[in-house]
Amino acid sequence: MTRSISILGATGSIGDSTLDLIRSQPGQWRVVALSANCSAEKLARLAVEFSADVAVVGNEQCLPELRQHLSGSGIAAAGGAQALCEAAARPADITVAAIVGCAGLAPTMAAIGQGRTVALANKEALVSAGEVMTRLVAQHGTTLLPVDSEHNAIFQCLQGGNVEDVRWITLTASGGPFRTKSQAELEAATPAQAVAHPNWDMGAKISVDSATMMNKGLEFIEAFHLFPVGLDRLRIIVHPQSVIHSMVEYRDGSTLAQLGPSDMRVPIASTLAWPQRMDTCCKPLDLAAIGELTFFAPDEERFPATKLAREAAHAGGAAPAVLNAANEVAVAAFLAGQIRFTQISAIVARTLDSYAPVAPGDLDAVLAVDAEARVRAAEMMENA
Ligand code: NDP
Ligand code: MG
């Protein structure tokens, strides 16, 4: 049976992994929409390879280039924020939401509005929108499947269990490339060092988030919205080998864990095939070769981001959206060489401290909070 799929953020790291799996099942998928921001040539190449119905660039200025690469192909080309949402709303059995940042929020909401299945990688969208997104999911009866490896692990560990019986959900964190670095070394850390993750090959933004541990902070908030156990039952443990992707401990003392290679094709495959399973060509887990699994408590002195995220989660309302927006601005500035690594969390903290917008009640209000927090974070950087 052929199933239809759209991939938002098709040209990124998650997009690559998803399309690799689709490629491995010829004849089983029909590709509806593929999107990028401005990687027009790559997007056109993928759209032709997978015979997509439509290819969309979020940045309208890149549309002429996309059109040029698609000319004669019969594939529709579109550009701009509105077009992205329209493409996301086109009926597809499953939509993979893999745009990076809050830029993916509106299209992800459009995909949720179909009432079908959304495989969510774009954690920033859920962190920013929180209940606004989960409410839409409930309203439309949409199936929201987590792609993020930790949340996918938790989702799997919860199969057959009851949320009321959960004592702890433990998110594992690799600790990133700077896990063992001193404060002085963190001050001097460069973008090239920050994006060189020891276990995972990912886009630049999430790689920096892993280095600051903000990725785990965002994931803490993501877990809060996906699994209704309450904030007090969520915790984080550093596990440098990234073999255990997360764990669920039940009240009888049983802990279930999901293990796998550090390859995003494993959790993506579990969402594509859910509730069945599919083959992947991922290297099998060789525990004898790995030898040791180790665990450490997070160090929130050197890596304050998880503490900031936990506080934002407890504060609720607009705080997670502010945290996320300030982080996006600070990470972009760090990658552009404008601020030091340790300033990322400092700017997020100062932005959160500087004001408290009211809790957003709908998508437009979330986007307004996001926009204002970006302006304020940029001001913080000027005064830094
Ligand atoms: P990448 O940077 O590799 O890819 C991002 C994708 O989003 C690209 O297709 C990019 O297009 C598109 N994009 C970027 N900005 C915009 C915009 N303003 N409007 C529309 N499209 C845009 O990111 P990743 O694939 O690494 O991550 C994607 C999401 O998945 C993130 O939220 C991340 O946190 C999450 N995730 C990623 C994991 C990983 O292993 N990579 C693991 C778990 C979660 P273009 O190519 O044109 O720039
Ligand atoms: Mg993750």
Task: Give structural notes.
The longest helix has 20 residues, at 363-382. Helix 2 (40-49) packs parallel to helix 3 (63-70) and helix 4 (81-89) packs parallel to helix 5. 46% of the residues lie in helices and 15% in strands. The protein is globular and about 55 Å long. The chain has a seven-stranded parallel sheet, sandwiched between helices. The chain has a four-stranded mixed sheet with strand order 9-8-10-11, with helices on one face. The chain has a domain at 3-146: NAD(P)-binding Rossmann-like Domain (Rossmann fold, 3-Layer(aba) Sandwich), CATH 3.40.50. The protein has 384 residues and is an alpha/beta fold. Bound molecules: NADPH dihydro-nicotinamide-adenine-dinucleotide phosphate and magnesium ion.
Summarize the structure.
The protein is of the alpha/beta class and 384 residues long.
Indicate the overall shape.
globular
Average pLDDT figure: 97
**Unreliable segments of 5+ consecutive residues:** none
In sequence order, what are the helices and strands, one letter per element? EHEHEHEHEHEHHEHEHHHHEEEHHHHHH
CATH class annotation of the domain at 3-146: Alpha Beta
| Integer-rounded radius of gyration | 20 Å
- How many individual helices? 18
- CATH topology name of the domain at 3-146, in short, is Rossmann fold
Going by CATH, the architecture of the domain at 3-146 would be 3-Layer(aba) Sandwich
Small molecules bound: NADPH dihydro-nicotinamide-adenine-dinucleotide phosphate, magnesium ion
Strand order of the largest sheet: 4-3-2-1-5-6-7
Question: Beta-sheet strand percentage?
Answer: 15-25%
Structure class: alpha/beta
